[in-house]
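User: I'm putting together notes for a lab meeting next week and I want to include a structural view of one of the chains we've been expressing. I don't have a solved structure, so I'd like a prediction I can at least talk through. The sequence is below, exactly as it appears in our construct file.
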Amino acid sequence: MKAMIFAAGLGTRLGKITETTTKALLDINGKTVIHRAVEKCFLSGFEDIIINVHHFADQVEMEIENLRKLGYRISVSDERDGLLENGGGLFKAKWFFGDNPFLLYNADIISDYDIPALFRFHQKKGCIATLATRHRPGKRFILVDDEGRLRGWRNVETGEEKLRGVSTSAGLDEIAFSSMHIVESEIFNYMRPGKYSMIDLYLELAAEHPVYTLKDDGGYWVDVGTPESLDRVRKLLV
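Assistant: Thanks for the context. Below is the predicted structure for the 238-residue chain, given as structure tokens.
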């Protein structure tokens, strides 16, 4: 099965740490962030991987070559000309994917989330996409109904809210996206070139094309986007 790892981000929240390297290459107890992402995808059954590159792309490609020498099968989607976010980045890499469902995974996520369970749930639902979710602090959340179907989005700081297929957010669960999702190749029929997020695309589709979520509040989930979270994950994985 195939997976795409998003590794092109600038990592600005890490401050001076990413002035000379990229977040994907930060060391976590002997393995780079991107090494751990590749390993997670591979051990979850997704053995054919594509990685997008932008920030310090040459350095990332050197690490990809090192990972290839370890036996991992990895292709590259070059975004040196412009960062596309995960929606535009996926569309640029559509040549890599066939007709089967695939995994999308943010390189900066360190988690013990059960991706094979996410894949099985996705197959059972027969939907266009299934998102891993978790209750955790944040500013922006997706809104789901009792069955876990995506029904909207909310920014709790600004109060902005977007609803799909429902007239009110009453009774909807406010939950955070965990940056892991299983997607059908059909998604490319609704995509376009440009710079946009997958969440925006899912919200466009959600009213007529079911998008489901699978919650897991157990285990651990860390986004290594700040110095504090980077330190936390290094202590967690000792």
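A couple of points you could mention at the meeting. The helical segments are 33-43, 57-69, 85-92, 115-125, 198-205, 227-236. The two ends are 30 Å apart (CA to CA).

User: Perfect, that's what I needed.
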